[in-house]
Amino acid sequence: GGDLVGKLWPHNFFDLVHNVKAKYGIQDEDTYNFNESSFQMGIITTQKVVTGSERRHQPKALQPGTYEWVTTILAISTLGYVIPPFIIYKGKNHLSAWYQELGIPR
């Protein structure tokens, strides 16, 4: 094997994808792209802040400290089928109803 990353890496990557799909019988309609993204939920406002003259005309976003991180996972198939987003909030407890409504096996 040559370099893992180099001029041919896109070609090598798609060869690998093709070989794995062939080996395991994965159809195009069973191929999905997933994307994970995290963001901060809260209140952000701009306010007047007293700073040195070197910061003139450079507004600063202030976070009052009331925020939480949320993660989303999105997926779409090669045929354009979109799975509803999976939104993950910070939590301390699980409720059994969450799993019953989704039909997740026990």
Descriptive overview:
The chain is an alpha+beta fold. 22% of the residues lie in helices and 31% in strands. The protein has two helices and five strands. The strands form two sheets. The protein has a three-stranded antiparallel sheet, with no helix packed on it. The longest helix is centred in the N-terminal third of the chain and has 16 residues.
Based on secondary structure, the structural category is alpha+beta
In which range does the helix fraction lie? 10-25%
**Assembly form of the protein:** single chain
How many beta-strand runs? 5
Order of strands in the sheet with the most strands? 1-4-5
Instruction: Give the DSSP E fraction (strand runs of 2 or more residues).
Output: 25-35%
Question: What is the topology?
Answer:
Blueprint: H1 9-24, E1 32-42, E2 45-46, E3 61-62, E4 67-77, E5 82-88, H2 96-102
Antiparallel strand pairs: 1-4, 2-3, 4-5
Fill in the keyword field for this structure.
single chain, 106 residues, alpha+beta, three-stranded antiparallel beta sheet, two-stranded antiparallel ribbon, 5 strands
Summarize this entry quickly:
With 106 residues, the chain is α+β, with helices and mostly antiparallel strands. The chain has two helices and five strands. It comes from Zopfia rhizophila CBS 207.26.
